[in-house]
Request: fold
Amino acid sequence: MKKATRSAVVLLSVLATVPATSFALNPVVQTMYTADPAPVVHHGTLYLFSSHDQDVGKKNNFNMKDWVLATTTDMVNWTQHGAIASLRDFPWAAKEISGWDGFNNGAWAPQAIERDGKWYLYAPVQGRGIGVLVADNPLGPYIDPLKKPLIAGQAGGLYDSIDPTVYIDDEGQAYLAWGNPRLWSVKLNKDMISYDTSIGDKGIIGHPMTVQALGERTPPDTQGTTLPTHSLRGTSYEEGPWLYKRKNLNYLFFAAGPIPEHLGYSTGPTPEGPWTYGGVVMTPQSAFTNHPGVVDFKGKTYLFYHNAALPGGDGFKRSVCVDELTFNPDGSVQTVQPTKEGPAPVATLDPYRRVEAETIAWSSGVKIEPSSAGGQNVRDIHDGAYIQVRNVDFGAIGARAFMASLSSTAKLKQATGATIEIRLGKVDGKLIGTLPVSGTGGQWNPQSTRISGASGIQDLFFVFRGAAGEELFKFDYWQFSQAGSKNRP
Ligand code: FUB
Reply:
């Protein structure tokens, strides 16, 4: 959809802050704005790749420089890994085109997949094409093996080469589909960085974009686009395709128009169709775009999508959410009602192992940053900020001590006056311990306190206290020790 059109329809839907005592889990990440979810499951972990709306930038415009990753094993606590790739990983992204300025903007909707031990991240660089990055690890580092777009920019227009979805079928054939307003697809070669079909010859996903295939657009498109090869959109298909398979039936989920977008789906006998339109998966939400990502994990199917639900959110400051997706016996998809609660936990969290501080079910007032100790740490910790971790299994005997790796922001080496209150159930729930925070002279130091009254499965809250208005300290990881255990955390 055109930038100007998007700007005109921005929905400034700043929603109320979620009450501290609720069990809200949507949006999934609260430390930054995220969009265009791309979940993938590998070895018992759900990897959620997404695009990243910057906090600041051109007003009423997308401001997107990098792609970010969060992971979960329980569907309620998400470990944030920050930016795992950026426009700078594509040398050819330096080129400015139609106002999309070099390395500063254009990191739109990605999708990643693992094959034979390598990770492939397909990412559009708005206006300049779709690139592919390769890594040995989902967290990167990613490199661009081609040093040029995999799918050329402007294949048919400014928005044609966006929103790649990648899928490998049961026979090992990989497919890449993408596009707005047209839906394109190629068969990828086994190397995953080349394809065996010509986009020009094959064209629109091999089959015509009919209303029967992709749904009726209501009201019909009367504006189209001014770009030369574009015509009016004849169906509800807009962008954001997502390929998925369940019980021998292939699904194409997609963002559907007109704006504000809803989510729709079609089904077909192959990942290239021919498609038969199935219906609406989600009605329009609080952002003028939406973007589906569907994945099976631990016996359930989940729909990831985005809205504008974080404080300060709007159509260009979006947030990824997740809810369960349910199928009818005939394979049709039930319409998803977005929830604030999100899905139920599918596993517990072990507090007696090292847990990264950026493993979060819900947080208020904190951000993350790359840590000098490796990985990420929590920053921007001010008086009253908190982190919630859900479904923590303290066991029958319970915990006796708590350790946190902290770094004071000041050069102080003595007591800072700051504390971490450790509470259960809610932000002002039962106090099981208080950790007085000492100055660390800017180093990372483990600091401990005694705990009493923590047993069973609990929601855990770290509530930060200290001088008003000051950044108190940084938080890298934490661990409890069990009552009766000789191991000190
Ligand atoms: O995030 C930028 C663009 O907005 C995506 O590429 C589209 O799918 C829409 O979400």
In short: Residues 35-36, 51, 62, 108-109, 162-163, 239-240, 255, 289, 291 surround beta-L-arabinofuranose (CB under 6 Å). Confidence is low (pLDDT under 50) at residues 1-22. The longest strand covers residues 33-42. The helical segments are 3-8, 199-202, 211-214.
